[in-house]
Amino acid sequence: MSGHGTPLPMTSSPCGPLVGKAQVPGDKSISHRALILGALSVGETRITGLLEGEDVLDTAKAMRAFGAEVIDHGGGAWSVHGVGVGGFAEPGKVIDCGNSGTGVRLIMGAMATSPITATFTGDASLNKRPMARVTDPLALFGAQAVGRSGGRLPMTIVGAADPLPVRYTVPVPSAQVKSAVLLAGLNAPGQTVVIEKEATRDHTERMLTGFGAELTVEDTDEGRVITLTGQPELAPQVIAVPRDPSSAAFPVCAALIVPGSDVLVPGIGLNPTRAGLFTTLREMGADLTYENPREEGGEPVADLRARYSPDMSGIEVPPARAASMIDEYPVLSVVAAHARGTTMMRGVKELRVKESDRIDAMATGLRACGVVVDEGEDWWSVTASGPGAVPGGATCKSHLDHRIAMSFLVLGMAAQAPVTVDDGSPIATSFPIFESLMGTLGANISRGSA
Ligand code: S3P
């Protein structure tokens, strides 16, 4: 398991063109939600295309601990026999969410309005991350939380026996916080209202509606106002999980910077609350096209085609777009290093509280590879070395962060000298087939140091 065993150094050496089809795994955000809402419905939810990465497998285990029957039928097909809203049983042991902030925060929300107590923990990365952003609104429902200093895991949540509905304005742009409040609101009587000033990924809202909850969304001067009517009976669903745009980002960005590449990434979820990276890349001049646009499982989907793009220029990424590409800034910074001019990324303070401080992790590794990076508390900029002109040749730390590890491996594919990451094991949390899939396209990734 990532972060629990011996570190796995991985080295990516400069490679020839990346060519072919990249079938990336299922969407992580949607996979977590499918398991959790399946567990809160009455009857059997069937899921295909589930991401079988460690983060989601930890959520599957957690749903079993709360009393749902979760069955792996093989090949991404799963079923969940739910216990119904308010039907969670008290787990007999500590819930270990591994590396997953989404898993722990959504599950805390889902159990916080039931009269049960649960203790949560995670790996060294997750146990450093802030949980007060979730436990503060859960306290308004009547739940209590006791954790380590700074609101950190391990943490015990005592669910509210008599929950009250809540009206809550989310203070940071976070789909995890929004979703935790909505999931808690499911077992509160009356209407729970969540207001977000900036729109964040809306998979929870879409899926709650799909499961039969009464939910409305209004755009007002206050922001996006989401109103959920509590204590519905959720009806089980058949869910086809689209492929993850955040995972697609890696083969797409690699193809843009490795000369001669032409990669097709089929069936990618292109929900507008997730697609900011692709818009940004196109504005930079990337040869990136959407083919065969369609709708699958209530989400817009298309095939992405990315070709080598030697004429990309740095841009100022609009801060209003940050939430729709929050997980993609690390790999964007790698593309920016291979463009021309400076790419400026503002309004991205949230990057400092992800699986790692992603601004610090990328800035340190990029500088070690010869790239010019500047940073402040909520912004950073990358000044391009130019296509093919990134020196590379360094060992970069992944800080238990899958996206940092994959970003540096992509950097190595187009650098002048190999790039090593000190530990590639976290990649298994979200993209367990990354190494083999990139190898099939033509990447040169080996285990060990250069
Ligand atoms: C996620 C929301 C984002 C994102 C994370 C997945 C989700 O976090 O970074 O990888 O599935 O809701 P925040 O909501 O905290 O920004």
UniProtKB/TrEMBL annotation:
It comes from the Bacteria. Phosphoenolpyruvate binds at residues 28, 101, 129, 176, 358, 403. Pathway: Metabolic intermediate biosynthesis; chorismate biosynthesis; chorismate from D-erythrose 4-phosphate and phosphoenolpyruvate: step 6/7. Residues 1-20 are annotated as: Disordered. 3-phosphoshikimate binds at residues 28-29, 33, 174, 176, 327, 354. SUPFAM superfamilies: EPT/RTPC-like (SSF55205). The active site is at 327 (proton acceptor). Signal peptide: none annotated. Gene3D superfamilies: Enolpyruvate transferase domain (3.65.10.10). Keywords: Amino-acid biosynthesis, Aromatic amino acid biosynthesis, Cytoplasm, Transferase. This is 3-phosphoshikimate 1-carboxyvinyltransferase.
